[in-house]
Write a structure and sequence with these properties.
This protein is of the alpha/beta class. 32% of the residues lie in helices and 25% in strands.
C-alpha cells in the first residue's frame, strides 16, 4: 500500500516517523508543512510541502495514495474536499492528533481500507481508533467489505446503503450466488442467507453475485473479477504506454478493467514505476513472484532466451497469470508482445466465501 503522511509541527514530525516504522511493510513517504523541516538537514527523509494543502492533497489523491494527516480534522477536510468524488474510487484518508491519542478514518473506510489501517496503527502505538462506520461499530455484516475480500466488482454503489440499512435493522439478508461458485466450507454469519441460483433473475435476493447480465430485482449486484493479467516490460516503460498496451489487449478480448482481479509479474518488477502507478490508480492489486515460483508452473508457454538471461525464466507473463489463479485457472490469452511489453491473460475459478477477519 502507498501511504503519504503529512504533519504540521515538530511533534507531528516525530509521530509521523513513529507511524512509518509501524507501516514498514508499506511504501510510506513523509511530508510536512512545518517550517523547521525546510531548513533542518537532520531530517532528510521528510519532504517539505511548498504548495498549499488543496494542491498537495489533490495530487496525492489523483495518484490514489492513502493519506494520513497528523493534525486537526479541519485541515484534512478542507484539503480533500475538492477531490472527493466516489466512495468506491476515493483514496483512504485518516487523521491523527499530534499526541498520538486518536486516529480517525474519514474517507473510504471499507473499500480503501482506512478502518483497517486505523486499527493497525492504533494497536501498535497505543492510540484509540475512532471508527464511525455503522456496520463496524455494531459488529454487523458489511457488504462492500465482503465484496472487496471476495474479489467482486460492485455494479451499483447505491445498493450498498440499502443492504446495510437492512442489516442494521436486524433483517435477514439473502445473497444469491451463481451456481457452482459458492464455497462449500463457507462460514455463514448470523442473519445472512446464502443460496445458489441458475436463472438470469432472482427477485427474492437482496444481493446477486453473478457473471450474467440483466439480473433484476436485487438491491445490489456484484460481479466477480475473473481475470489475471500477466505482464512484463522493459525497465522504465512509461505508465501511459503501459496503459495503452493493456487497454488495447483487453479490448481485443472483450474484457473491461473492472473484470481484472490483479496484475502480476516477476519480483524483479515489483518497483517498476509505470506498472505500480497503473495498478494503484485503478485500485488493482499488483502481485509479483520469484523466478523459482514461476518455473514451477507446468504447461506449454512461449519461450524467450533473452527473457531467460534477464530474469531466470523463459516466460513471465503467461506463467505469472496462471500462478495468480492458484488452482483451476486457464490461459485465455497467450503472450502478446509490443514495444518492449508482453501480456497474457488467465481466467480464474472464482468462489464466494465469508472471512470475518
Amino acid at each position: 500500500m502507498d501511504i503519504r503522511i503529512i504533519s504540521f509541527t515538530e511533534k507531528g514530525i516525530r509521530l509521523s516517523q513513529r507511524v512509518a516504522e509501524v507501516l514498514s511493510d508499506d511504501n510510506v513517504v513523509l511530508f510536512t508543512k512545518c517550517p523547521v523541516a525546510k531548513e533542518n538537514n537532520n531530517l532528510p527523509m521528510i519532504r517539505y510541502v511548498e504548495e498549499n494543502m488543496v494542491e498537495w492533497a489533490g495530487k496525492q489523491m489523483s495518484e490514489k495514495h492513502t493519506l494520513l494527516f497528523i493534525g486537526a480534522c479541519g485541515i484534512a477536510v478542507r484539503a480533500i474536499a475538492p477531490c472527493v468524488v466516489d466512495k468506491l474510487q476515493d483514496s483512504a484518508v485518516l487523521v491523527m492528533d499530534e499526541g498520538g491519542n486518536y486516529i480517525i478514518p474519514i474517507l473510504s473506510g471499507h473499500v480503501g481500507g482506512a478502518n483497517e489501517i486505523a486499527v493497525k496503527i492504533a494497536t501498535e502505538i497505543g492510540a484509540i481508533p475512532v471508527i464511525t462506520t455503522a456496520t463496524d461499530i455494531n459488529g454487523k455484516f458489511a457488504v462492500d467489505l465482503f465484496a472487496k475480500r471476495n474479489g467482486l466488482h460492485i455494479e451499483n454503489k447505491d445498493g450498498i446503503a440499502k443492504v446495510s440499512s437492512k442489516v442494521l435493522a436486524g433483517k435477514e439478508i439473502h445473497l444469491a450466488v451463481e451456481q457452482g461458485h459458492l464455497d462449500e466450507n463457507i462460514s455463514i454469519p448470523e442473519a445472512i442467507v446464502f443460496s445458489e441460483f441458475q436463472i438470469m433473475a432472482d427477485r427474492t435476493a437482496d444481493v446477486v453475485i453473478t457473471t450474467k447480465a440483466g439480473v433484476e430485482g436485487a438491491l445490489l449486484t456484484l460481479k466477480p473479477k475473473e481475470y489475471m493479467i500477466g505482464i512484463g516490460c522493459k525497465r522504465g516503460k512509461e505508465e501511459e504506454k503501459i496503459n495503452q498496451f493493456i487497454l488495447k489487449n483487453l479490448d481485443d478480448l472483450g474484457i473491461s478493467v473492472e473484470q481484472i482481479m490483479a496484475v502480476v509479474s516477476i519480483d524483479k518488477k515489483k518497483d517498476e514505476a509505470g506498472l505500480v502507478a497503473w495498478c494503484r490508480k485503478r485500485q488493482i492489486p499488483f502481485w509479483t513472484y520469484t523466478a523459482e515460483q514461476l518455473q514451477q508452473i507446468n504447461g506449454k508457454f512461449s519461450a524467450s532466451n533473452f527473457v531467460r538471461e534477464q530474469v531466470g525464466v523463459y516466460n513471465v507473463c503467461e506463467r505469472a497469470a496462471l500462478l495468480a489463479c492458484q488452482d483451476g485457472g486457464s490461459l485465455v490469452y497467450k503472450k502478446h508482445a509490443e514495444d518492449g511489453m508482453t501480456i497474457a491473460i488467465a481466467k480464474r475459478e472464482w468462489r464466494v466465501g465469508f472471512d470475518e477477519k
